[in-house]
Amino acid sequence: xxxxxxxxxxxxxxxxxxxxxxxxxxxxxxxxxxxxxxxxxxxxxxxxxxxxxxxxxxxxxxxxxxxxxxxxxxxxxxx
Length: 79
Known about the structure:
alpha+beta
């Protein structure tokens, strides 16, 4: 799925969760932010201006969160 189409769909539907495979099929890859280290690491993905999803490394599911917090390191989702 094209990134623009993915952003439009998720912004419109705002599902509570996204499976890792759904995001892996998006091209170009969405950008994510990471915060913390070890078991405290959180990975957050912003979709459009007002929808955010978060997961921890190893999780297979992205969960919608209510706000975008102050993440400071930007990395692309690994292929």
